[in-house]
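Reopening closed ticket. The problem is back. First fold of the pair:
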Amino acid sequence: MFELIKNLTDKFGVSGNEEEIREFIKGEIKSKVDSIEVDALGNLIATKKGNGKKIMVAAHMDEIGVMATHIDEKGFIRFSNIGWVSQNYSLGQRVRFKNGTIGTVFFEEKLDDLKSLKLSNLYIDIGAKNSEEAQKKVNIGDTAAFCGPAELAGDMIISKALDDRSGCAVLIETIKNLPKTDNEIYFVFTVQEELGLRGAKTAAFRILPDFAIAVDVTLTGDTPDCKTMEVKCGMGPAIKIKDGSVVCHNDVRKLLTETAKKLNLPIQYEILERGGSDPGAIHLTAGGIPSGAISIPCRYTHSPSEMASISDIDNAVKLLKESLIG
């Protein structure tokens, strides 16, 4: 599992620029599904055909990042965020543009009080001597992802983009190991989740499934002096009850809970007070689609050093696989 996630997180996939990660996933699964296609928005839809229930399973390919908005005469690059980007997490981090150009993020020297730090006070330094030299490598509108190669620390993976390449890994492993079932299953690797759950919305409208299950990360309550939350790394995948975008359907929650009990899997229950995920768009589509989610506990989300448990991810695969064949 670690090698798969490492390969997934290494790929460039800032929202709206998911081509590289999409091609990698396609190569991993194309021999294991009955059909595979890319829709107009860029979602990768892989289908295992059947005559039973139509089930949509979703995980988003995209990651947060930044976009170049201005290059000054000295070659320093101003930027805006793609998705929710923390100015504090960004400070001193390296970024990689889609063409491979590397830069570092730092703050204006005139800024005395870091408590008032904003993204508008930051810039990217790519080592250019002037604007002309910088524009040979970076143009206005180019996007960059944060650098954070995957490392293994005991049972924990440390990497950028575990949100949601860990979920993509769960879908890939489920596809590869799914027993024969009468259900017709649509595995959707969605785009632009970080910009408002956009890919999930269009894919759900196209598929019109009987119900949907998404796999994404969630926050935890297991770090020093953190906000109180039941979810902890290493204690099993979480079954989502609600987040800021959805109250999960009782039937889907029941399916996931009873499946976990059947397999004797450790599980947790997630109540996320803010933020949203793909079920938030799916459940409002075309008159309503019963939706739920399996969530992977993840520390330090939207930083270049997110952390998640290998055992939680492995158990998420077991839970999803068994839930789909019932």
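Second fold of the pair, where the issue appears:
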Amino acid sequence: MPAIFEALPGIEVPVGGIASGFEKLWADTAAAEQRAMQLNLVLHFGLATTAEDAVVQFRVAVRFAQRYPCRVVVLCPMREDNGAVELRAKIYGECFMGKSKDDTRCIEIVALSYSPAARVFLQDEVSVCLSTDLPLYYWAHRFTSSHRLSAYQYMLTRSQRVMFDSAIVAPDALSFPWPNISAVRDLAYTRTLPLRQNIGQFLSRYAPALIVGGLQRVIIHHRAQWAGEAGGLLLWLKKGLVRSGGDPAQGIAFSVIPVDCAGCFSLEFGYADPAKTFRWAADLDTNHADFTGDLGTGRSTLTVGASLLEPEMALAEAMFF
């Protein structure tokens, strides 16, 4: 996968010359005093990552680092396996304005390209690149199989958070025996935070007994590309119904159905009493949603905004909450 490494911005340096490379990079700037770091972020590309996708995720990491100054290490595995141990490195620095003209901040990113034979040395190289006194966060992107992650126990066990995206990974990620499951976060679920907040706020006006009483069906319709988000929303709903006194294991049918329409994302509750209704229908292309419902206290309607979190904000939500 050398194309990914070559597609990323930065200056190639010897692997042993990363520190001196940054010293030279900042030598003619006033950046030295502006590089206070809060955390370490390792972005690890899987073999399914394309060069174009890698650049997009690289920019996500940059935007995240602008909000939360950090040392970013990007890992780029090579596809070719000729048995040779090969490690290459790039460094990238960027300065930007903060909240005022006197608030200038700079970030540092290291990209490491490694052959399969060099994987055994990766932990040592990553350790050298990280700020050892800061917490570590690990973002695994587009791995073809979650079991490939087993080779990276250092990141899986040492990280405060381990993040993946169920919308773009193999299904085994949801059943993979993560070493520390409490640290794992799904970015697809995290992106639905604004939707969950709106639905929760609307339903909070009703007593829990009104919501779960006679509930028979929960149906989510979604555009095909939002299967991961729909699955995350369903998981949240099941937990919420249990807290409200419902029993999803008995008597409630759950359905997640892809539909062929532009911005469609909707949720509907079906009740034994046909007079009870609840429906939330969003258009995520136009960023609005409509609530309609009558749970026994009269018909209620509401129009609100509706959107998924931006990638860098979803990353922050997954890491810190």
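Update: turned out to be a display glitch only; the data is intact. The chain has ten helices and 14 strands. The first strand starts at residue 11 and ends at 13. Please close again.
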